[in-house]
Amino acid sequence: PLGTCCTLDYSRGDRNFISFLFTMAFFNFFLPLFITVISYQLMEQKLRKTGHLQVNTTLPARTLLFGWGPYALLYLSATIVDVSSISPKLQMVPALIAKTVPTINAINYALGSEMVHKGIWQCLSPQRSEQDRAR
């Protein structure tokens, strides 16, 4: 109801709401996407020099793009066309997808990091490690 979360009233078309949507698009989508792409490109350059490129550097940017992209597309299209013809339930789908991005990032990190992956496997494995057996 306050217009500050994912349940926005897209039927409003005044200048204040449109400027709010553009500001939200910049700070919630374009700026994080830019920072993510640049950061991982720099990380990839650094890791290629050392020869330790074991990280998928495009996955976080793709996750952000596919997770927040539909939501950004919805509220940016609301500035141009009338999206009130889209049912409220369907309007919530991009917001719900965007809300899953932090969980997907955590899963990507856990499965992408060899150290974390081994630790998770060790915790889930019924066998004790050799260090535990030696004690």
Cα distance spanning the termini: 59 Å
Mean pLDDT: 78
Number of domains: 2
Sketch the major β-sheet. Answer: none
The backbone outline, from C-alpha atoms, is elongated
Portion of residues in beta strands equals under 5%
Structural class determined from secondary elements: mainly alpha
Show unreliable segments.
Answer: none
Share of helical residues: over 70%
Q: Count the E strands.
A: 0
Instruction: Give the SSE string.
Output: HHHHHH
The tally of helices reads 6
Nearest-angstrom radius of gyration?
Answer: 21 Å
Organism: Mustela putorius furo (European domestic ferret)
Protein name: Retinal G protein coupled receptor
Membrane topology: Multi-pass membrane protein
Subcellular location: Membrane
